[in-house]
UniProtKB/TrEMBL annotation:
Homodimer. Pathway: Amino-acid biosynthesis; L-lysine biosynthesis via DAP pathway; L-lysine from DL-2,6-diaminopimelate: step 1/1. It comes from Tissierella praeacuta DSM 18095. This is Diaminopimelate decarboxylase. It comes from the Bacteria. The modification N6-(pyridoxal phosphate)lysine is found at residue 55. The keyword Lyase applies. Specifically catalyzes the decarboxylation of meso-diaminopimelate (meso-DAP) to L-lysine. GO terms for molecular function: diaminopimelate decarboxylase activity; pyridoxal phosphate binding. The gene is lysA. Keywords: Amino-acid biosynthesis, Decarboxylase, Lyase, Lysine biosynthesis, Pyridoxal phosphate. Its EC number is 4.1.1.20.
Length: 420
């Protein structure tokens, strides 16, 4: 009987050692992607900066891996920032995002001297100015702009369209108020603009469209206010392989065209080319992770479908129920058996929508078989919950064929920890 090998490890043995459900991450894979960012973006193009979007997957160990690579990190909450602080992540390489940062989160960021804060709305500038004054510190900010681009991705992971909760709309009055406000401030220094058009994007068309729009804005603020944009943050969003028809493209597919477009537009408008920042998250960790489950109840509804339930589901992977995300999976202890049956993989939650995969081809299954859902490295652990008071799985990191625990499995007592 042959078992599924992931990152050089026998996954059935991992399931036996750590129990299921279990998140397994490949450090080698993550390091490969981080290396690709260095080689094909940072070293290839001058005046560039890359930050890993930590919302995709963050633990202290992940923050250490990113720190060691020399790449920066984008955080979007006090909790993500606090994780970075705990591993002495270089604060000048942190970019702090969020459409509703609290005053406490902003204070944590400014007190710790984060490199840049991406301002999402005008009231935020007042809070930043006040805290900057308190710490007598110049705070570098970028304005997040929603450039009015509808990317071809699920509407819950589109972010750059005009009707969006993110960013300052690219519209005359809003830009004028933002510019007039910020240019008067003493402790807040605008260094540039940011946009992020969405996630799991498979081509570079919309990044290019967004850059054309942003270049016009850069020219306009130069003409109207004499303001020189020093930095343009182009966000993340590069897609990965989840299921057929989806593939992870090399980073350069996106970034070469981003740089080329910015250079051409700067030449056309007589602008100096700003520092270009990228923020990939999913592309770095998505395919680095799998989730291993044990199969429990198998229920055949004659002539309709067979539901195969696993010991996890929407609490460890909310993406299928949240935005109909598609996944592939393998029965890890039956790799040599022909896939003969069509089944639906259901989670164990008290929700009809808790389905991980509709219509998966599998060998004949028995209770106790083990299933690995693939490409679960991004937005799974980081989006997990305790719904139905189910403890979160452990996270195991594999490096050069060796496994180590990086997050312990939660216990029932962990769930009760804050109950009074
Ligand atoms: C501002 C910003 N930057 C970067 C990312 C990372 O996106 P992805 O994981 O698709 O690369 C996101 C995702 O939501 C984002 O909102």
């Amino acid at each position: 009987m042959s078992n599924f090998i992931f990152a050089g490890c026998d996954t059935v043995k991992l399931a036996e050692k750590y129990k299921t459900p279990l998140y397994v991450m490949s450090e080698d894979y993550i390091k490969e992607r981080l290396k690709e960012i260095k080689k094909d973006f940072l070293e290839k193009h001058e005046k560039t900066m890359a930050v890993y979007a930590s919302k995709a997957f963050l633990t202290k160990e992940m923050a250490r891996i990113v720190k060691e690579s020399g790449i920066g990190m984008d955080v979007v909450s006090g909790g993500e920032l606090y994780t970075a602080i705990q591993v002495d992540f270089p604060m000048e390489k942190i970019i702090f995002h969020g459409n509703n940062k609290t005053i406490d989160e902003l204070e944590l960021a400014i007190e710790n001297n984060v490199g840049r804060i991406v301002v999402d709305h005008l009231e935020e500038i007042d809070m930043i100015e006040e805290i900057g004054k308190k710490y007598n510190r110049k705070v570098h900010i970028l304005f997040r702009i929603s450039p009015g681009i509808d990317s071809h991705t699920h509407k819950y992971i589109q972010t750059g369209q005009v009707d969006s909760k993110f960013g300052i709309p690219l519209e005359e009055k809003s830009i004028k108020s933002a510019m007039e406000k910020v240019l008067k401030l003493k402790f807040t220094e605008l260094v540039g603009f940011h946009f992020h058009i969405g996630s799991q994007i498979s081509d570079n068309e919309n990044h290019i469209k967004a850059i054309r729009i942003m270049a016009q804005l850069i020219k306009k603020v130069k003409d109207d206010y004499g303001f020189i944009v020093k930095e343009l943050n182009t966000g993340g969003g590069y897609g990965i392989h989840y299921s057929e028809n989806e593939e992870r493209k090399p980073l350069a597919y996106f970034t070469d065209s981003i740089i080329k477009e910015i250079e051409e537009r700067c030449k056309e408008y007589g602008l100096e080319r700003p520092l270009v920042i990228i923020e990939p998250g999913r592309w770095v960790v998505g395919e680095a992770g799998i989730t291993i489950y044990t199969i429990g109840a198998i229920k055949e509804i004659p002539g309709i479908r067979t539901y195969v339930s696993v010991d996890g589901g929407m609490p460890d992977n909310p993406r299928p129920s949240l935005y109909e995300a598609k996944y592939e999976a393998v029965v890890i202890n039956k790799l040599d058996k022909e896939p003969t049956d069509l089944v639906t993989i259901a989670g164990k939650c008290c929700e009809s929508g808790d389905i991980l995969i509709w219509d998966l081809k599998v060998p004949t299954l028995e209770t106790g078989d083990k299933l690995a859902v693939l490409s679960t490295g991004a937005y799974n652990y980081s989006m997990s919950s305790n719904y139905n008071r189910i403890p979160r799985p452990a996270v195991v990191m594999i490096s050069e064929g060796k496994d180590r625990l990086i997050v312990k499995r939660e216990t029932y007592d962990d769930i009760l920890r804050n109950d009074i």
